[in-house]
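TL;DR need C-alpha cells for one chain.
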Amino acid sequence: MRLVAFLIWERFRPWIPFVVGAFLISGVLGEHARTPTGDAPHMLAISDRLAMMFQRGEFLDGFESWTSLVTPHPPAGYLIPTLFALLGAGMETARLTGLFGLGLCWYGMNLLSRGDHRSPWGPWMGGVLLISTAMTWTLVEHMAWDLLAAGCVAACVGHLHASDGFRNKGHALGFGLTMGLGFVTKYTFPVFLFLPVLLSIRALMRFRSFGGLFVSLLGFCVVAGPWLWVHGDAVFAYVLNSTSTVHTISDSPAKSWLSRLSANNLLYYPTVLRDAVGWPGILLVGVAFVRVWMRPAGRWAAWAVVSGILLLSFAGENQARYLYPALPLLGAIVDIGIRPGIVHPMARFGLVCGLGALLPSL
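>> reply
TL;DR here they are.
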C-alpha cells in the first residue's frame, strides 16, 4: 500500500504547481465573472448546440455537424467546451476550457524538462513565468483557441524531444497523435512545428529509426487523416485566403507582401513577446537561451519559438494571441536553463517570486 501511495504521489507531485496556479486563476477570474468576448460567444454557441444534439440522442447528426466545422477553426477544439457543457459547467465552460489548454501546456513542459536536473515539482519556475503573464489570464478569461493550440504545440515538441530521434516508439506515437490533434485544432499550429520537424529529419537519418517514424505517421493519420481527406480542399482554400494580401480583413502591418519585409512588421511579434513577459522576462529568457542551447530539450523548444515568430511574421494577419504557444516553450527554456544553475532553493524561490511580481507592471 505504501508503495502504491508513493507511486501515486510521485506521479501527481509534478502537477501540484499547475493545480495551484489553476485554482488561483479560476478563483480570481471567478470573482469578476465577466462575459467572454471575441470569438468566444460564437464558439460557445456552437459547443452548446453540439451538446444539445448529443443530449437528445442525435449522435449521427451531431457527429456530422461537428466534423463539418472548417472555419474559423477545425473541429477538435470544440470537443472540450462541448464536454464541459454536457457535464453542466454552464458559465464556467469558457474558463474551464482555457484551463484545460493550460494543462496541456504543463504536460508538454513536463516532457521537455525531463533529464538529470528535473525538479520533482515539475517545471515550476517556467510555470510561474507562464502564469505571471497578463496574456495567460486574458486568454483563459476569453476562452481563446490559442490556449489549446499552445497545449498541442508544447505536447508535440515535448514528445518529439522524448522520442530521442524517434527511437522511443511510445513518444514517437505521442508526437504523431499530438501533431494530428494540433492540425485539427488551430490553423496556426503548424508554424511552430515547421523547423522542429525539418530538424528531426537529421535525427531520423542519423539513427535510422524508421519504425518510430512509421508509428508517428500512423498516429497522425488516425487523428487528422479522415478529416483532412474529406475537407482538405476547403482547409487549403481557407488558409490560402487568410494569408492573402487581397482577402485579409485586418489592418495589420503585414497586410501586403511588400510590407511584410518592413521593420514594422518584422518587429511585431518580438514586440508582442516583450510586452508579454516584460524586460525582466526578456533578460531571463536571454540568459536561459545561452545556457540551454547545449541541451536537446532546450534546442527543440528554441527552434519551435523561432519557427513560430518567423512564419507568423509572414502569415498576413498579425494577432498578438497567435504567438501565445511560444510562452510555454519559453517557460520550459527558463526552467531548464536557469533553475539547475541556482543551487540554493530559497534563491530560486526569491528569483521567481520577484519576476512574477515585476512581470505585470513592466
